Structures
1.
Amino acid sequence: MRSIALTNQKGGVAKTTTTVNLGACLSEMGKKVLLVDLDPQGNMSSWFGLDIHSLEKSMYNVFLQEVYFEEILKDTCVHNLTLAPSNVALAGVERILANEKERDLILRKRIAPVANNYDYILLDCPPSLGLITINALTFVKEVFIPLETKVLALNGLVTLVNTVQIIKERLNHKLEVTGIIACRFDSRTNLSNEVYKQVKERFHEKVFNTIIRENVRLAECPISSKPITMYAPESSGAKDYIALAKEVVGLETTREKDMPEE
Ligand SMILES: Nc1ncnc2c1ncn2[C@@H]1O[C@H](COP(=O)(O)OP(=O)(O)OP(=O)(O)O)[C@@H](O)[C@H]1O
Ligand SMILES: [Mg+2]
């Protein structure tokens, strides 16, 4: 089992787009995949056609320890792709749990019993470094950082990598940033090329070779309630996410497959 948080405190960098489409591509390669929506915006849950305002049980109830994790799971239109949904209620969790002693460990404890049912667990994080993201980073072993290559935001990236390092030292010794993903790449602009070059110079092999190009089909995709490989299989977006999934699977041999530390 590989557990991966897709995180970047910057908004709109393609975290959700990458979680959905990478997850779907991994499922289509025969992997059992669990997607966990950790964003109160519920974008990933809406993407799969859920009416997030009428969810009876969601990650909110999991964080408050009112339900077992498996009680909230929903099947998706993709075989072997399961979703743990969220909605705006999740925003309340930070305040409700503010004084809880082991508040950083809740997610790890709640997912642990079912984690080995899956080959991949992908967590779509909110655009912040608050309690929910900390819970994600305490559970997973790997961090993928989607990066919008249309803006030079190296400072934000350094802050994020430092945060991951602090959590690694204090809460989760096995945590590693294993992949920076260049997204929304526009080869016509010097800026995209320059951003990729600078990130590669600084983070070397941590940057995936696959680049996700800017593609209007990807922007349209959420309203179809399907992943890109079903909505527009011939698009560059589908090809890029399939290539990314192959590269991710190629790293399996170099990553341990056991459970995160208790
Ligand atoms: N490769 C791409 N080509 C074109 N549009 C894209 C691409 N990737 C993402 N987008 C669009 O960019 C916007 C932001 O993407 P997304 O919602 O995945 O980002 P996010 O990091 O999850 O945002 P948030 O921080 O709000 O959760 C969306 O409108 C999405 O459709
Ligand atoms: Mg998102």
2.
Amino acid sequence: MKSKKIVILTGAGISAESGIETFRAAGGLWENHRVEDVATPEGFAKDPELVHRFYNLRRAALKTVKPNAAHVALAKLEDGLKQNGGQLTLVTQNVDDLHERGGTKEVIHMHGILTSMLCGTCEHRWEYLEDASPHLSCPKCYVKNTSRPDIVWFGEMPYAMHVIEERLSDCDLFVSIGTSGAVYPAAGFVQMASSIGKATLELNLERSQGSHFFDESRLGAAGTLVPQWVDEVLKV
Ligand SMILES: [Zn+2]
């Protein structure tokens, strides 16, 4: 096995094949809402009811979708690397739980996750699977009215950046799957990895904005490309 320590970044493309509609940056709209209204701290302060309702719908929609062959293959990769003394660091920009449901044990949700709440008072995060309202109280500090969806909004710092940078500096290979290469800081991971001599690979439906930074790009559906690539890695 050539690559024992692999860092993978996944984006909207891998969830799209499971039927999850994702944020469309181009129009500045998300499910007919203005991004400023449902994906910024200011929007939440202005209308917490609306913001909770928006994410309640997204959370409920998770029950209608299933992980696809790409999610399942990455769980197999995590297992295979572990058995060979290696390590998979799976970082996702997606806020769905399809990697977990596909069987991956350790997932870094750098943009948060729909199945979690965040206390705006003490920053406690806890699993939450039902519909939420602004009146929800935090199970740790018991303060009401400040609980919010555990989603990293525009203008906020993504989670676990120091862990991701550490893993990137210690990996054999960085792989980007189904990302547009347009959202920073995630879009900069490939430059970070290649600047310190790491091998880089992109698996994407079409060339991303950062395509030229990768050693290799394979184009096609994640559900086909990812299982093929995982078999290659585990065979060598
Ligand atoms: Zn709290």
3.
Amino acid sequence: MKIGIIGAGYVGGTLATKLAAAGHDVRLANSKDPATLAEFEEIDGITPAWAAAAVTDVDVAILSLPLKVIPKLSDELITALATAEIVIDTGNYYPARDGRIEPLDQGTPDSEWVAAILGRPVYKVFNNIVAPSLKHKGDSDPRLAATVAGPSGEDKNRAYALVGQIGFDPVDAGDLDQSWRLQPGTPTYCQDMTADQIRAGIAATSPDDVEAYHAGRDAIEDFDAAMVAMRQYM
Ligand SMILES: NC(=O)c1ccc[n+]([C@@H]2O[C@H](COP(=O)([O-])OP(=O)(O)OC[C@H]3O[C@@H](n4cnc5c(N)ncnc54)[C@H](OP(=O)(O)O)[C@@H]3O)[C@@H](O)[C@H]2O)c1
């Protein structure tokens, strides 16, 4: 498939490398000139690109961005995303990084908010697996799982297939309105879990506990330091 990825950080860069290794034709972008992604140019199957060009007429576009930038995406990029057959969002809301985003504080699931801004359906995938595990624990024994939330149908099947191709068992997490069950602070969030463990963890989530989930998420006060600490595991 032709896959365009916006965001070349821990998650976007890892997905680009793994999806290219799985045989896909990957275009990768950040917020800058593609020349800043020279390290990826050497990888077979990855072509650095400007953001709008990366996702124009692709089979799958993947957004792997801090949520604070979503409302500021250019009209050109949103128009280009409309040409992608499927859009996947890996994003999670962290006030320590993104600032306060009122609809998300009030309980709109993160990726529903992204879909509304883009004006098109999205799938929430790869938000619920920590980047070092995404990078190093594909095809592990026991096989770990990654969740897929979004509308049922052929597009969702294609999202499942991508998860499987990079070494994880896909778990159906329902439609986007249920995707709060996958967000930071919830029982399955960024845990290394098998498919059965993730299903049990999702079943254990409760709307009564949402404040506790948010408190867990908000316990990270210095987001940059947490990301620097992650680097040693990449
Ligand atoms: N890290 C994890 O373990 C993990 C796991 C699951 C999900 N997530 C979520 O996935 C998303 C990405 O996380 P990450 O850890 O990969 O972040 P990251 O390492 O900080 O990378 C973010 C990427 O987004 C790019 N970017 C920022 N603003 C942009 C814009 N306006 N246009 C195009 N590109 C832009 C950055 O490029 P520039 O250098 O040009 O700014 C960078 O390449 C976040 O929402 C995060 O919460 C993270």
